[in-house]
Amino acid sequence: MATAPASILRPLPLIVSPSQQRLDLYPRFLSPSAFPSLRQSPLSLRSKPASSSSTRRLATVKAAQSRFIKVIQSAWRIGKDAVEAGTNLVPGSIPRPVARIGVTGALVTLALFLFNSILSTAFFVLAVMGAIYFLYISFNKDEGPRGGGDPLSEEESLEEARRIMEKYK
Asked: Where are the transmembrane segments (predicted)?
């Protein structure tokens, strides 16, 4: 096993400048240099260049759009390759354009079937969850509020209010 050089194991001396040794009365986040916009006069009429946050936002939007376009292009390429591979499986006696149209139709039908299956499964699960929640609420309706006892009738609550007011007179 190799040993580490002594220079790595030896702690480095901590060097602190005199400006860092003095007690800083104002934290960095409260210093005027932390807010460059406060140094400028609010009455200044000169136009400001685009801020870095808006530039970053535009770059993020552009990157997301380009990613979406790349995904669409990749899906298109994969679809074209799948159609070509399926067309190559069709016997040569069938003309290529007809085979290409047939394979494309079969792949689109398969894709829509899978999409439909996924959506119907998701909606079925949501419907079952909703039905279970509805049954839970309807079967536990008779327990009443859990806030602290039985709800009082109007007369009982008025009588209790009178007792409390007489107590503090």
From this structure: 121-139
Pick from 95, 100, 96: nearest CA to 79: 100
* Cα separations in angstroms, 156 against 138, 146, 160, 167: 28, 19, 6, 17
The structure tokens 């069938």 sit at 94
Mean pLDDT of 60-85: 88
DSSP string for residues in 43-80:
T--SPPPPPHHHHHHHHHHHHHHHHHHHHHHHHHHHHH
Residues in the chain: 169
- 117 is in which domain, residue-wise? 67-142
pTM summary value: 0.43
Residue 144 contacts residue 150 (beta carbons within 8 Å) = yes
Per the structure, how many domains does the chain have? Answer: 1
pLDDT tens-digit map of 103-145: 999 999 999 999 999 999 999 999 999 999 999 999 988 765 5
CA 135 to chain centroid, in Å, comes to 32
Question: Under a CB-based contact definition with an 8 Å cutoff, are residues 100 and 87 in contact?
Answer: yes
